[in-house]
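#struct-pred

JT: dropping the chains for the assembly here, can someone run the whole complex?
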Amino acid sequence: MTGYSRQNESTGTGWTENVLRVEGLTVIGRPSDVEIISDVSLTVNRGEILGLVGESGSGKTTLGLSLLRHLKRATQITEGRVWVGERELASLNEQQVRNLRGRAVAYIPQSPASALNPALRLGTQLTEALHDDTSTSDQVAERVREVLREVALPDDPAFLRRYPHQLSGGQQQRVAIAMAFVGRPDLIVLDEPTTGLDVTTQAHVLETIKAMTREYGTAGVYISHDMAVVADLADDIAVMYQGELVEHGRTEQVLSAPRHEYTRRLLMAVPLLRTSGHTEPATRTEEPLLRIFELSAGYGRTRVLEGIDLSVSRGECVALLGESGSGKTTLSRSVAGLHHQFEGGLVFDGQALAGTSYRRTAEQRRRIQYVFQNPYEALNPRKRVRDQILGPYRHLVGRPDDPDLVVAQALERAALPASYGERFPEQLSGGERQRVCIARAVATRPDLLVCDEITSALDVSVQAEIVKLLRSLQDDGMALLFVTHNIALVSNIADRVAVLNKGRIVEYGPVGQVMSAPEHEYTRALIADTPDFELSFPGAPERLSMDSEGRVTDG
Amino acid sequence: MTRLIVVRLFFGALTLWAVSLVVFAATQALPGDAAQLILGRDATPERLAALRDQLNLHEPVAVQYMQWLQGVVQGDLGTSFSNRMPVGEYLASPIRSSLTLMGLAALVATPLALFIGAFSALRRDRGFDHGASMGTLVLASIPEFVVGILLILLLGPGGLGLFPSVYAREGGPEQWTLPVLTLALAVAPPIIRMMRATMIEVLESEYVQQARLKGLSERTVLWRHAAPNAIGPVAQVVALQLAWLAGGVVAIEFLFNFPGVGKVLMDAIENRDVPLIQAVVLLIAGIYILVNLLADAIGLAANPKVRVANR
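RK: done, full complex below.
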């Protein structure tokens, strides 16, 4: 390509077809001696991408990091070998490990916002990836500019002088990709690099990754919990479950004929984009439960929302679809009375709602409940589940005659056993925490539940269960305002959908109509950018997967 | 960033003004008036009247305050009651001694504390770390003059006899050792603990992991990636501790009979020498504010978000 010389001694003897070979790798945690990954074997060929799929806690990140001979605190490799090219990682000394990292194996982190050093300029961080290089600084600088062009970022000196916080999330992830490819590695480990990016950015980043691995002939290990992304990108798929590799094969084969029960479950949990087969929501003549008209809101002088018109009827699920920064959270917070800098009207059950929750009646507050995005932050870690559920109940409804019954009923509606009332949040998994948040919200028997991205912090399989739970609540007559960036989810849960773009509703209508015949450019782009695949294995549900419970939309 | 520093300067000046108000009010609360205090037993009604006239004591309090403040701003701190010398002149030598003492203590304590803290973080949960955390806890829980007394017993004439325990005008540089050491030991523990905690947080961060995964040497990881991100929070604690020195020096100077502002303050309180007390308290407050301002500036400079946004 340029006058840049390659200083990679390991590949001097010719190419082996397998860039990565893992044999019987076992990693245990200290001091408990629990196996984090047990007896994992796999290979990846040059120029191919292996999708490593599993839930959080399945050991996929531990496996990914061990390919760079990096172990987290208090973990230890007890058995097995890892070859990258012809190097056996366990036999390397410290200097050789440093030469391996960044040059033979590179790592792209999950969250570039926290993996790029906030105190260092981009130029420094990109250049230092070529730390053991013997070429002149001019050649290094040229190489950095070249790789920046390849990931479609500016390569001028002004850009290189920037700090990470001056970039958007997508740009940060491109910098992380550039940082990984700058040393022309043989193998690249990608740890959920698109989690936290919105679909459009995700599509661009995946495109870049695909092009770069092809161009460089680099082997890739793509770690993810999202089967839809992996199906789109990977040549091979390996599925991890509780530290074990339960399935490994070509992508088409795994998708069409999954052998392991867990793989099948994972595949079925992915919300598929439904573009047809929706039941039309019945036309309603009665006054809607919540009516929003001509609402505009902002923070200080910045306007976030303009001219929002929206209504939610009883027992209806209206989805608010938009990417980060589209103003969807601001809208839902305004409805809940958490954000009061807005003009326009909010009418709830025939009565105007005050801007702030302080000036709403207890009854109004009881009838609108809010579930937050991150269940890890929304629960007080020092209080038992029972007290978290009873808190708002006592405040809004009054002292219950039988507190145990209130807790038990709320937990039951969130599909949790009553015994969970005695637990503390740290004794719960992410999905269970979100169920507790839902139980807390439904304990006061609200009419409208505002769900702000409540599945985005959860694994795909857990997400499917939460969606199922929401549907049952809706069947009981509760109205939902479901805020999300995931268009596939919308197509599975909502009756009507409002698409938000830059603070305005660009498309609003019944889900079936919006999905099958999107009118606005932006909606079409969203649908096109969403990774999707067909389920074709025997016994797999049709595309109507989530509607298979025979739900009846009442009039 | 300049704007932020100007804002902080303004608030520093505001604080100093509030301190002057409090100090002036305190002198008004004393029994009798300044003339009475100055003349003491020599007071005759005629002499009192003459002195009151001379000191403008018949003016309203607000006017007196304005006159005093005007003097302070122009560098005229008044005349000491006990020795009839201008306060500024009288304080010059003690201020120099005290500042040298504080400076030496800061110079010894800060780098050492930062190093011990960082090293503890690197050796987390090993022998050195446990030893350091035990030591800092013990030191932090003992009052600084007790530390001084223990040092005198251990290293002074009664113990190993390495250093003199009392400052004397004709003594050599070795007599500085014990006061400096005592102050350094009093100042260091919180800095060590903060440095350790911050370094651990930074070392566990994803960008440090990413730097290691890029194959950088441990030295580069530490100095280029970890240290700049630890400076901001630690600078605040260092500043708090150094500012504490300005007040903490009083007890230590008394203990070692060191001729600094602390000792002057003790004597002034004993003699009810109001102008002197006012001057010393203002001085200590001034140092406090200045050091904190410096820490804010360092904290801001260490944060690229602020640095870039306000250039």
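JT: nice. The interface with chain A takes residues 205-217, 220, 224-225, 228-229, 302-305, 308 of chain B (CB under 8 Å). Chain B has 13 helices and no strands.
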